[in-house]
Write a structure and sequence with these properties.
It contains eleven helices and 13 strands. The longest helix is centred in the middle third of the chain and has 11 residues. It is of the alpha/beta class. The chain starts with a strand and ends with a helix. Strand 11, helix 8 and strand 12 form a beta-alpha-beta unit.
Length: 237
C-alpha cells in the first residue's frame, strides 16, 4: 500500500481544515516546499497536493507551488483542486504533476472529464469521490449533490477509470479513524485501485487500511499533529 502524505494549500501556505470547513483552518508551515522536502528525506515517493484556493474558485490557483515542488524534489505528485478546464489540466501537467485528480469536474461535466481520461490515459487521471453521508460533494466540499458515492464510482469504472481517491468528509481532520466500512463496500463492488483519505489518526489505521486491501492511504493531520512519526511511515513503506 502506498502511503501518501498530503499538503493542502491556502494562500501559499501548508494548512489543514476540519471536515473541509474553510473557517476551521490551521497553518502548519509557511512554505509547502519545505514540508515536501522533509517528506522526501524520509524516503517518501508520493505526494497528494491540493489547491484549496482553486477548489472553491473558477480554476487552478497555486500551480507555482506545484512547479517549485516538482522541480526541487523527485516526488510523484498527484495534484487536485480547481482543475475545471482544459487549460487548468494543461497547466497542472506542465507544472510537474504526474497525476491529476478530478472531483467537481467529474460530477458537473462528465464529457470533459471523460475527454481527459481519453487524452491523458487512466494512469494519469484519478477520480475524486469525496462524500458526506454517502453523497458526492464538490467545489471544495461546499456543495452537496444527490449522487451516491458507489453509483458515482461505478459509472466511471465503466468508462475506464482505474484509480479513485475517496474522502469521507465527516472524518477529514477529525483524527478519529477512517471510514473502513465505506472503503470495504467500494472494493467489494468495484475493481478500482482505492486510495483512502480522511480520518487516519495513527499507525493502526494505516495497517487496517492495508489489510482491507486499499492500494493507498493519504495522511495529513496525523503527521502534522505528531500522531504519526515519519520514521514509522518509512518503516511501513
Amino acid at each position: 500500500m502506498k502511503i501518501i502524505p498530503a499538503i493542502d494549500i491556502i494562500g501559499g501556505k501548508c494548512v489543514r481544515l476540519t471536515k473541509g470547513d474553510y473557517t476551521q483552518m490551521k497553518v502548519y508551515n509557511e512554505d509547502p516546499l519545505e514540508v515536501a522536502k522533509m517528506f522526501e528525506s524520509y524516503g517518501i515517493e508520493y505526494l497528494h497536493l491540493v489547491d484549496l484556493d482553486g477548489a472553491k474558485s473558477k480554476g487552478i490557483v497555486n500551480y507555482k507551488i506545484l512547479e517549485r515542488i516538482a522541480i526541487q524534489t523527485s516526488l510523484n505528485i498527484d495534484f487536485g483542486g480547481g482543475i475545471k478546464s482544459d487549460e487548468d489540466i494543461r497547466i497542472a501537467f506542465e507544472s510537474g504533476a504526474k497525476q491529476v485528480t478530478g472531483g467537481s469536474i467529474a460530477l458537473k461535466n462528465r464529457d470533459r472529464f471523460l475527454s481527459w481520461l481519453d487524452r491523458y490515459g487512466a494512469e494519469r487521471i484519478i477520480l475524486g469521490a469525496d462524500c458526506k453521508n454517502r453523497m458526492i460533494s464538490s467545489n471544495g466540499w461546499l456543495e452537496d449533490s444527490g449522487t451516491d458515492v458507489m453509483d458515482f464510482i461505478q459509472s466511471y469504472e465503466a468508462e475506464g477509470i482505474q484509480t479513485v481517491i475517496s474522502t469521507d468528509i465527516s472524518k477529514d481532520g477529525m483524527l478519529e479513524g477512517p471510514s473502513v466500512e465505506l472503503y470495504k463496500e467500494i472494493m467489494e463492488n468495484s475493481k478500482v485501485d482505492l486510495i483512502a483519505s480522511g480520518g487516519v489518526s495513527d499507525m493502526d489505521d494505516l495497517v487496517t487500511l492495508r489489510e482491507i486491501g486499499c492500494s493507498g492511504a493519504i495522511v495529513g493531520k496525523a503527521i502534522y499533529e505528531g500522531r504519526i512519526q515519519m520514521n514509522e511511515i518509512a518503516e511501513l513503506c
